[in-house]
Specification:
CATH superfamily of the largest domain in chain A: DNA ligase/mRNA capping enzyme
Oligomer: heterodimer
Number of domains of chain B: 2
CATH class of the largest domain in chain A: Alpha Beta
CATH class of the largest domain in chain B: Alpha Beta
Strand content of chain A: 15-25%
Helix content of chain B: 25-40%
Shape of chain A: globular
Number of helices of chain B: 10
Distance between the termini of chain A: 51 Å
Radius of gyration of chain A: 26 Å
Helix content of chain A: 25-40%
Number of strands of chain B: 19
Number of domains of chain A: 3
Number of strands of chain A: 22
CATH superfamily of the largest domain in chain B: Ribonuclease Z/Hydroxyacylglutathione hydrolase-like
Structural class of chain B: alpha/beta
CATH topology of the largest domain in chain A: D-amino Acid Aminotransferase, Chain A, domain 1
CATH topology of the largest domain in chain B: Metallo-beta-lactamase, Chain A
Low-confidence stretches of chain A: none
Largest sheet of chain B: 7 strands, mixed
């Protein structure tokens, strides 16, 4: 645990990815197998299940810090991180510990079935034996939300450095449904298992957003273009008569989409499809909001199944006849995919059609009607490209439509989390309805650090009232809010729900009176709502 | 009528017709310390500790009218006894004790209770009403002893030196900068300074403060000369062309706000040292209890939370709005500082 906490601190103290990878590789070098495996699990978002409620942790921390609970809550809102707030409030003690990372994780796991008193005794004892850095990491293990400033990609790179095994091979071995409780470092990482876990998906290849002109990509003839569907990215695996569905977040979601069970019969075994999971009616994709109703549920009732019929719009074929096709050029994979879909028709499997074009400007036109087609824009893929691992620049580009925008007045502010701790950076925005300001969206990202500081100072100076962590402020600042979509919503007071709202820019040039009106907002809903 | 009032111009003693750290132009001002949010321009006449005066003159102009007042020296103005007492914040920093007809108030300005080896150490003063800052008035702010922080800083400097890097640490040019140069291990290397820091060093030396030797960085200072040594610069110098020309460097920030991981990550520096010239949570409570005051007025920092807590533990407390800043989290604020009120 000391080593792991030191690793955490080291990762925090540098912005250089090189140094981060180096620090993690060194951690792997000096740790035992079980600790390594847990470190990998944590860095790939496989933390142990939460066994102690955070409300209890708060109470105990306040007790230990000899402060009232309300004061702990204030402190927590300032820190913006529960694990850290607890670590800081609990007093230092002279006791020490030298147990391993796995020891502490096993302890946390074992608390799951214990009574509250036993949990409390164990957690307090742990806090007392740790310094603030160890205590922080320990609390993070309980509460989750581990952000160590190291992506899974960099973790894999460090592991490659440590084991000498190639990065892409490791990325594949690390996929799927495993936990340090069910496997070992040797089994998962070091053993090349030919008939590896049937459910194991391939690492997703992710596109970059196109930043320059589309014509900079060169010859149109070298590229495929498709619609960018507004569903969730998924991999559907058919192996040995079984179907497995994976979301991009490496979550096994087979049970949530029973529609795909029919693939087991229809498709040849040893088939892996990459595509968009999306509800489609009469060939037309439905709004993302409807898909969300499905995602949220572990089990799906009959009504939802009929109302929101899920399909896979396939755009790539990663495995055929049990063979990994990722090394083939896209052109060949595409041909095989088309043949597969043609020869094995099955309800709920659609092909993502190519957009025909010979000149870039045709594509520009197609892109402009994306919203009417319930699409986010276009995907542009190089015909000669292999299927790569993770986000790579050069061969796959996403070319989204420009977002919708509206100018709004900031009326509430709340302190942020993480990097935005102790600063007012989470805002509520409103538009005019007569003399009234109607709140319609919350957003936090999109400001530069300098702007963030400026707005923070404004909030502190212009507070009208405080409601717990939230402050109402003088309505004065105008921001352009960008969003991807708009829908009617009965859950929001404004009657609309926005998709991905964020701050596009600060309209310092606009007085508050010139912000948009509620009527403008409703106009957007009428034009673009689905 | 309270002995000290909070007026639009500042904290005011009507009986003695004198303001403490006023923010508008007044006739007579007694100054707790020379930081710009407490010592402002435009007063007809100032009273201050002798160690504050040269810095005030540096910042406000040589032509200000200012009368020196030593610690514990008693002034009598229209029956009011006024005296200064060490606040331990920076060299010359003082608490102002005001006593009239058996009632005593203390306005403490900014203070810390740990002896920093530079400023005259904080002395508690008995009073009925205590006016306090609470810049770090939350139970998450608990400083490590400075010996520990400087050990970490020395180790970092040494490691940088071994890697061929020049070390830059940023700190306020008045107070923190000198605290650092007095406490780091000069066996490791030489200390270089930014002009803003050196200007302050110079006047403090002239005023009789025995500061460690430093060298001003000029146009002619070469990268090679600096390599492996320590540079002390104000926070505004971080990530500027001025600092970048010394690359390869490792940079660090010395500020109480570095206690929080979020703030550390937000500031793009390699290291953050939670070193502050303000009292931490235990320090505030210790100082307040030592005054024996039954009434506490909080002026800047987490005032509403801190006052609420004091009331809960049986000490009457209210917050008053002032234009004091305390330790600014941000360099831009530090510079324009004057108009900002942190509530």
């Amino acid at each position: 645990m000391k080593d792991f906490a030191a690793l955490f601190t080291a990762l925090d103290q540098t912005n250089s990815t090189l140094k981060k990878v180096d620090a993690l590789a060194k951690y792997f070098d000096r740790s035992n197998d079980q600790d390594k495996l847990w470190a990998i699990a944590i860095l790939s978002h496989r933390r142990p299940k939460r066994t102690v409620k955070t409300t209890l942790l708060r109470e105990w921390a306040a007790e230990e810090g000899e402060i009232p609970l309300w004061l702990f809550e204030e402190a927590y809102h300032t820190v913006g991180d529960l694990a850290e707030a607890i670590a800081l409030v609990v007093p230092e003690s002279s006791e020490q510990q030298n147990e391993s990372l796995s020891y502490w994780i096993d302890l946390i796991i074992s608390l799951g079935k214990e009574e509250e008193e036993t949990k409390k005794t164990a957690i307090l004892a742990a806090w007392h034996q740790m310094d603030a850095a160890e205590r922080f990491v320990f609390n993070k293990l309980i509460t989750g939300g581990f952000r160590m400033g190291l992506s899974q990609k960099l973790m894999t790179r460090a592991l490659a450095k440590h084991t000498g095994i190639e990065e892409s091979e490791l990325a594949h071995r690390l996929m799927g449904d495993w936990s340090p409780q069910t496997t070992t470092f040797n089994e998962l990482i070091l053993t090349k298992d030919e008939k590896a876990d049937l459910s194991k998906p391939y690492p997703f290849y992710l596109a970059y957003a196109l930043d320059g002109e589309v014509s900079d990509l060169g010859q149109p003839n070298d590229w495929f273009a498709e619609r960018k569907w507004d569903g969730i990215r998924g991999q559907v695996i058919v192996r040995d008569g079984q179907v497995f569905v994976w979301s991009r977040g490496e979550e096994l979601v087979t049970d949530r989409f029973p529609e795909f069970q029919s693939f087991a019969e229809a498709l040849p075994h040893g088939t892996v499809l990459d595509g968009e999971i999306i509800p489609v009616v009469d060939g037309i994709p439905l709004a993302f909001g409807l898909l969300q109703r499905r995602i949220g549920r572990k089990t799906v009732g009959k009504k939802l199944l009929t109302e929101i019929p899920i399909h896979l719009i396939a755009y790539d074929l990663l495995e055929y006849d049990g063979k990994d096709l990722r090394g083939l050029p896209h052109l060949e994979r595409r041909a095989m995919l088309e043949k597969l879909v043609r020869n094995h028709p099955v309800d709920r499997l659609l092909l993502s059609d190519l957009v025909a074009f010979t000149e870039w400007k045709e594509l520009t036109e197609v892109r402009s009607d994306s919203r009417a087609n319930h699409c986010e824009g276009l995907m542009i893929k190089r015909k000669s490209a292999t299927y790569q691992v993770g986000r790579k620049k050069g061969d796959w580009w996403k070319w989204k439509v420009d977002p919708l925008v509206i100018d709004a007045v900031m009326i509430y502010a709340q302190r942020g989390h993480g990097r935005r701790a102790n600063m007012y950076t989470d805002f509520t925005f409103a538009v005019w309805k007569g003399e009234q300001l109607v709140p319609f969206a919350k957003a936090y990202s999109g400001l530069t650090d300098a702007e963030m500081r400026e707005v923070d100072a404004f909030v502190k100076k212009n507070t009208i009232e405080r409601f717990g962590p939230v402050r109402s402020v003088h309505s004065e600042l105008v921001f352009e809010i960008a969003f991807e979509g708009i829908n009617a919503s009965s859950r929001h007071k404004s009657g609309v729900a926005l998709r991905f709202p964020r701050i596009n820019r600060w309209r310092k040039d606009k007085p508050k009176e010139e912000a948009n009106t509620y009527k403008d907002l409703i106009q957007l809903l009428e034009n673009y709502g689905q | 009528m309270p002995l000290l009032e909070f007026t639009p111009s500042g904290i005011y003693c009507r009986q003695a017709d004198i303001y403490i750290d006023p923010w508008r132009k007044v006739n007579k001002a007694i100054i707790t310390h020379a930081h710009s949010d407490h010592s402002r321009w435009g007063m007809k006449h100032y009273l201050a500790h002798p160690m504050s005066i040269p810095v005030m003159k540096l910042r406000l102009g040589n032509d200000i009218s200012v009368q020196p007042v030593e610690y514990n020296q008693k002034l009598n103005i229209n029956g009011v006894e006024i005296s200064l007492h060490p606040a331990g914040h920076i060299p010359g920093s003082a608490q102002v004790r005001v006593s009239y007809k058996g009632e005593t108030w203390v306005a403490s300005g900014d203070y810390k209770v740990e002896d920093d080896g530079l400023s005259t150490a904080f002395e508690p003063v008995k009073c009925h009403t205590f006016i306090t800052e609470c810049t770090f008035g939350l139970p998450i702010y608990k400083w490590k002893p400075q010996s520990e922080i400087f050990r970490e800083m020395n180790n970092w400097w040494k490691a940088n030196q071994e890697n061929g890097l020049t070390t830059i640490v940023t700190a306020y040019s008045l107070g923190k900068a000198q605290r650092i140069l007095q406490n780091v291990d000069t066996n490791i290397g030489k200390i270089y300074t930014h002009g803003a820091v050196e200007n302050t060093n110079e006047v403090l030396r002239k005023a009789g403060l025995d500061l460690t030797e430093t060298s001003l960085i000029t146009r002619d200072t070469t990268k090679k000369e600096l390599q492996g040594n320590l540079i002390i610069a104000p926070p505004s110098a971080l990530n500027t062309p001025w600092a970048n020309r010394f690359k390869p460097i490792s940079d660090g920030i010395a500020s109480g706000w570095m206690m929080l991981r979020g703030t550390r990550r937000r500031r793009a520096a390699d290291r953050g040292f939670a070193l502050s010239d303000h009292a931490d949570w235990p320090g505030l409570l210790q100082a307040i209890k030592a005054t024996g005051a039954q009434n506490v007025i909080t002026t800047h920092g987490y005032t509403s939370v801190f006052s609420k807590y004091l009331n809960e533990i049986g000490i009457n407390s209210v917050e008053e709005k002032t234009l004091f800043i305390g330790e600014s989290i941000d360099t831009a604020e530090e510079e324009k500082g004057k108009e900002e009120a942190v509530s």
